[in-house]
Structures
1.
Amino acid sequence: GNSVTQMEGPVTLSEEAFLTINCTYTATGYPSLFWYVQYPGEGLQLLLKATKADDKGSNKGFEATYRKETTSFHLEKGSVQVSDSAVYFCALSELTGGGNKLTFGTGTQLKVEL
Amino acid sequence: EPEVTQTPSHQVTQMGQEVILRCVPISNHLYFYWYRQILGQKVEFLVSFYNNEISEKSEIFDDQFSVERPDGSNFTLKIRSTKLEDSAMYFCASSARQPANEKLFFGSGTQLSVL
């Protein structure tokens, strides 16, 4: 079956540091790939997505490129801020008979300090 | 941006009791979902619901679980007889359309603790 593996946290960085959170996946077919973010006390929010190989998703300075050859979708940001502190979830989707089923990784907690 | 609302935010119950977790999806959405996350583990798919019926369910979603959309606005998850291992954060989600690249909107979750 489908699965997503992402690096364990917590990841602690200083403000303005470079961020990489690794994500690899196993899937049959050609899934869409997502990064969701959960800020404290809130629900999961879509951060970015990519729907086919070599697509790059980007939002709020975050980027991730759909790499089919390495089955990866690593999240990067050039300069993190304290406000980026959250839990980041990598996910893939497969279409089902009546909806869109997401398979998630375990989540990576990011802490950004001044 | 529109929101999915979940109540309560925390629920404590005794083993063997029934619980109902409530969700109000975004009003024009057609597809509804429940996911859960046991502490330290992955967010897991439980069930998807469309056109007033379950469209897919996971192995976790056994006979103890049921979902309902009783009045056109609420979407509920019932656990008939809770077990200790049901303790988790339960997330409701909804989406407007079906495609695999469609964005899901999630609620902030209900933390269920079974004692």
2.
Amino acid sequence: EVQILESGGGLVQPGGSLRLSCAASGFSFSSQAMSWVRQAPGKGLEWVSGINPPGDHTNYADSVKGRFTMSRDNSKNTLYLQMQSLRAEDTALYYCAKVRDYGDWRFYFDSWGQGTLVTVSS
Amino acid sequence: EIVLTQSPGTLSLSPGEGATLSCRASQSVSSNYLAWYQQKPGQAPRLLIYGASTRATGIPDRFSGSGSGTDFSLTISRLEPEDFAVYYCQQYGSSPPNTFGQGTRLEIK
């Protein structure tokens, strides 16, 4: 059974940093591309970032490019999202998701964690 | 960037009725790479349909997807109480990014 568990969310001041983690099990983590998707309170879904299986290529939404860095440790079956220069509009529930990759960063999300809440406020 | 517009915003129906949700793309979705997700309050989204019409593992056959090009639909043939939720479409035919529609809320009438 696929299990995905995010952690690391919390309250942070504007301009601050936070690192999210995502522990995965139940599938061959090192063979799977992964992604982060976020959902602002009461709003819809927004793709944030993606990473290839080895972890040497990443891609980001324009809204977070240059501020967020996605990485992975395949030896620990864990994904990370380092967030810097946080803004109020980054406040959201951040989901880690396993993807089915169609190349060129085109994918759908076939398994999701329960999310971790990031609140950016002074 | 492909913009997905879902309609209606809210759909009010009774259990046992059929539901049709629409997702319209601002330009053609390559290879009909269109997915649908269901999200219940306090829960993560769940994949229902990919490739416009293929049900994901474990999804009941009362859920069906159809469409091509710019117009797609999700049909629920006989609504069960657990089907009342928010539904999102997502295109993965062009990237970046993988864009989502704004969602349709299916509520009990």
